[in-house]
């Protein structure tokens, strides 16, 4: 055939397609769905298709999906009983999983479009799950340490009814890959027909990663690998390692106990200082008031006998006192004044602290003779002022020992009651 006729046939075919789509838009004819395919995984089946956008114009488009076992189409005399899976749905897919299509059967699937009451032609396809359904990876992979090796436990892929896919794929087996996590070397491969295997030749106390893939050689089906699972192998623990663990745990326990005791001690001390503060006594007072030099306990009161002993060395310093003693001349002392008996004696007495401190007058036994004697002594006082220096030297006006004064006064000779004392304080 020449190029001109070929070009004319192509032009004619294009015009027919244009008329076909334009007529569907006007409602005279609706185009059928295109690219009808099945998406499967184990026993989960979904029929999907495409439809040209804008082919329905402003009208809504719906789709109807049906299926039938292929063997029923061979009986031409018998009416085919098509089963409707999805009726008048707007989706571009239809789920066939709930119909439990037999895994080893062959089915014919068809779908058509409906626009404003107008139906398109049926678009058909054949489907065989055993041949076309994809095989899924294991549903679960578990690792368990076995000394320096690892046990790998694989769970079969599951159907839509949560049963094992091994019921539909008897020759199912697994491809195991494992490698050392820190190493960049090539992964090792292992084929297993069971659901459990022990990976040999592994290093002790080393991390390994494992992933598994499902396979079926009858139709050359292979699944995706599972997510890598990693675990560390175990092994015998050296004695020195056990000893170090023991020392570390013992030290940790000791530090915990020590810290607890120290915390309790600090807490008790703080509470004691807050509730019962101790005031320190000055050192110069502790020397005299405390029972011992290093003790804070004050000295208790002692009986009177001991208190006297403690106060034996105490010296009382009264205010300065001037003692004036007047001694008459020898002539007057030799001849007693008139009115006094020759044998009369003068008694010396001290002024009491409770009496008047400024009088300096002592009483005598006589009446009028006493007054004349006082006058006489007063005259003698003015004449013998120089004798005061002698007594001032004998008695220190800054400090007077009461006991010595008492002993000195007691040692003086007694005088008569009638006499007059010539000592003024």
**Major sheet description:** 5 strands, antiparallel
CATH class of the largest domain: Mainly Beta
Low-pLDDT regions: 1-27, 304-308, 339-370, 382-400, 413-425
Q: Portion of residues in helices?
A: 25-40%
Overall domain count: 4
Please name the CATH architecture of the largest domain.
Sandwich
Which secondary-structure class do the elements indicate? alpha+beta
Determine the CATH superfamily of the largest domain: Immunoglobulins
End-to-end distance, in Å? 176 Å
Overall radius of gyration: 69 Å
Shape: elongated
Order of helices and strands: HEEEEEEEEHEEEEEEEEHHHEHHHHE
Structure write-up:
This protein is an alpha+beta fold and 425 residues long. The chain has helices at 3-26, 129-132, 239-275, 283-289, 304-310, 330-334, 368-383, 388-394, 402-411; strands spanning 34-41, 44-50, 61-69, 83-89, 93-95, 107-115, 118-119, 123-127, 140-146, 149-155, 173-180, 188-192, 196-199, 207-216, 221-222, 229-232, 324-325, 423-424. The strands form five sheets. Strands 3, 4, 6, 7 and 8 form a five-stranded antiparallel beta sheet that branches. Strands 11, 12, 14, 15 and 16 form a five-stranded antiparallel beta sheet that branches. Strand 11 and strand 12 form a beta hairpin. The longest helix is centred in the middle third of the chain and has 37 residues, at 239-275. The protein starts with a helix and ends with a strand.
């Amino acid at each position: 055939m020449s190029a001109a006729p070929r070009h004319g046939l192509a032009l004619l075919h294009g015009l027919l397609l244009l008329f076909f789509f334009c007529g569907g838009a006007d409602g005279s004819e609706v185009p059928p769905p295109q690219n009808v395919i099945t998406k499967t995984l184990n026993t989960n089946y979904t029929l999907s298709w495409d439809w040209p956008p804008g082919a329905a114009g402003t009208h809504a488009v719906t789709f109807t999906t049906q299926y039938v076992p292929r063997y029923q189409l061979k009986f031409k005399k018998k009416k085919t009983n098509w089963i409707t899976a999805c009726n008048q749905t707007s989706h571009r897919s239809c789920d066939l999983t709930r119909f439990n299509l037999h895994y080893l059967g062959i089915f014919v699937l068809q779908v058509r479009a409906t626009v404003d009451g107008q139906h398109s032609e049926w678009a058909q396809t054949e489907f065989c799950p055993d041949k076309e359904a994809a095989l899924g990876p294991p549903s679960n992979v578990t690792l368990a340490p076995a000394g320096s090796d690892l046990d790998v436990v694989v769970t079969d892929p599951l159907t839509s009814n949560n049963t094992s896919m091994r019921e539909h794929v008897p020759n199912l087996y697994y491809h195991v890959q494992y490698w050392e996590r820190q190493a960049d070397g090539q992964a090792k491969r292992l084929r297993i027909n069971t659901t459990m295997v022990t990976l040999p030749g592994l290093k002790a106390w080393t991390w390994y990663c494992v992933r598994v893939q499902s396979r079926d050689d009858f139709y050359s089906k292979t699944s995706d690998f599972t997510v890598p699972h990693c675990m560390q192998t175990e092994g015998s623990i050296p004695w020195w390692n056990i000893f170090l663990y023991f020392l570390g745990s013992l030290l940790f326990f000791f530090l915990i106990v020590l810290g607890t005791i120290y915390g309790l001690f600090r807490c008790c001390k703080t509470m004691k200082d807050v509730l019962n503060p101790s005031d320190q006594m000055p050192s110069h007072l502790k020397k005299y008031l405390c029972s011992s030099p290093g003790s804070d306990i004050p000295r208790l009161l002692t009986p009177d006998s001991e208190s006297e002993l403690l106060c034996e060395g105490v010296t009382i310093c009264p205010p300065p006192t001037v003692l004036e003693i007047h001694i008459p001349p020898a002539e007057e002392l030799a001849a007693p004044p008139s009115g006094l008996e020759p044998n009369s004696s003068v008694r010396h007495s001290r002024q009491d602290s409770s009496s008047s401190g400024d009088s300096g007058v002592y009483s005598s036994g006589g009446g009028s003779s006493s007054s004349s004697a006082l006058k006489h002594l007063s005259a003698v006082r003015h004449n013998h002022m120089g004798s005061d220096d002698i007594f001032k030297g004998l008695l220190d006006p800054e400090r007077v020992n009461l006991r010595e004064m008492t002993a000195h006064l007691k040692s003086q000779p007694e005088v008569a009651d009638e006499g007059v004392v010539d000592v003024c304080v």
